[in-house]
Specification:
The protein has 380 residues and is of the alpha/beta class. It has two domains: 240 residues, Rossmann fold (3-Layer(aba) Sandwich); 89 residues, no CATH class. The chain has 15 helices and 14 strands. A five-stranded parallel sheet has the order 4-3-5-6-7, sandwiched between helices. The protein has a four-stranded mixed sheet with strand order 2-1-11-10, with helices on both faces. Helix 2 crosses helix 3, helix 8 packs across helix 9 and helix 12 packs across helix 13. The longest helix is centred in the N-terminal third of the chain and has 17 residues.
């Protein structure tokens, strides 16, 4: 049986010992899904974490991550928290003023960035972010001839790591220690809210009680780490429950990867469900008249019960779910903005109930009240 843990860095180390050969992450690269085991995850987290320790990052420091969803984001985030620092994730679509605000107000001394595009963004902001002294790049494509003393590739950063005792650093983390700096969603210049390791473990524990996620469930990691839904209900809850996180090739391949993967868990924002429904409507308009009639009949009939609803599901709606990568879906959830009524009705007709993770749950105990307060602050 898995042992209790006090941080997600500790969880990864423990799971590597207990489930080392088990797949926990996959990423789509050049058309092929590549798997990462718990052992590999732990090795990558330790390698980056040791380099952070060698660079004197510890409790009281903040490190930023500016990237689309990809496994390196996971490695860096867990390494930042494991070395004792706090992690702040920045949306790669944020404008320069907001990025500058997040970096400067959090006091980030180092930033992990995805690629040349995000590197250029930070290079233009260094004068506005005096604390930022180092940038680590995940993907060096197009940067072979680039040279800057304060910028290094992820591989070079890892090679600079010394012989710090990673296990000791992870064991030294306490529940009241800052782990994450979460900024309000959307545009603007609100102040960041600090979540401790204890807060994170509490939120994920409460989330696990609400969503019956099983080991070896599959999810497509659509949202970015800057979205609290992805951070808590996506990445951390998946690590806690041993649900496999699959990372798409890029934002433009999400529908294709969703169709191919057919995940059992889908945690996205309202915009994704609105997009799926609109895509279905567009394809319906281009269908022949008989197909449109049958599809409309199936959607209406599915809201009823009895033999006709089962026939509609068997002969029509099952194929629709498969077409959009939803045929194996057991659990669907969103946070933040509500799903539009049209998309919500469409999902219900397909037999999919979309849960809101930031709504108050039943019960009035102290544990539930703390969870609700943490979620309300995180989504503010």
């Amino acid at each position: 049986m898995d042992q209790p843990h006090t941080s997600f860095a500790a969880l990864v180390s423990q799971r590597a010992q207990a489930h080392g050969d088990e797949t926990i992450l996959r990423t789509k690269n050049r058309g092929i899904w590549k798997a990462a085991t718990w052992t590999y995850l732990a090795e990558q987290v330790q390698a980056i974490g040791t380099a952070l320790l060698a660079a004197d990052f510890a409790r009281g420091d903040v490190v930023a991550i500016l990237s689309e969803s990809r496994p390196e984001v996971v490695y860096a985030d867990l390494a930042i928290m494991g070395c004792g620092a706090a992690s702040v994730a920045i949306d790669p679509d944020d404008d320069l003023d907001r990025v500058s605000h997040l970096l400067s107000s959090s006091g980030s001394r180092l930033a992990f960035v995805e690629n040349e595009e995000q590197l250029d963004k930070l290079l233009g902001l260094r004068d506005r972010c005096p604390a930022l002294s180092r940038i680590v790049v995940f993907d060096m494509k197009g940067l072979r001839d680039f040279a800057d003393a304060s910028c290094v590739s992820l591989s070079a950063f890892i090679e600079s790591g010394g012989s710090a005792d990673w296990a000791l650093a992870v064991r030294s983390i306490d529940a009241d220690q800052p782990a994450v700096v979460q900024f309000p969603r959307g545009e603007g210049f609100g102040m960041g809210r600090t979540l401790t390791h204890g807060d994170l473990m509490h939120m994920v524990g409460a989330a696990r009680d609400r969503l019956p996620i099983r080991p070896h469930d599959e999810r497509l990691a659509v949202l970015r780490l800057s979205d609290i839904t992805e951070r808590i209900w996506g990445l951390y809850l998946s690590l806690e429950t041993r649900c496999i996180s699959n990372y798409p090739e890029g934002p433009d391949t999400v529908i294709e990867n969703l169709q191919e993967l057919q995940p059992t868990i889908l945690g996205v924002d309202a915009a994704v469900w609105d997009h799926l429904q609109m895509l279905a409507a567009t394809r319906t308009k281009s269908a022949v008249a008989m197909q449109r009639l049958v599809y409309g009949w199936a959607l209406r009939t599915a809201r009823l019960t009895g033999p006709r609803a089962r026939l509609a599901d068997l002969f029509v709606l099952r194929a629709v779910r498969r077409e959009f990568g939803l045929n194996k879906l057991r659990l669907a959830y969103v946070g933040g903005a509500s799903v539009g009524s049209t998309a919500l009705d469409w999902a219900r007709s397909l037999g999919i109930a979309i849960q809101r993770v930031d709504e108050p749950s039943v019960g009035s105990g102290q544990l539930d009240e703390r969870y609700q307060a943490l979620m309300q602050n995180a989504y503010a």
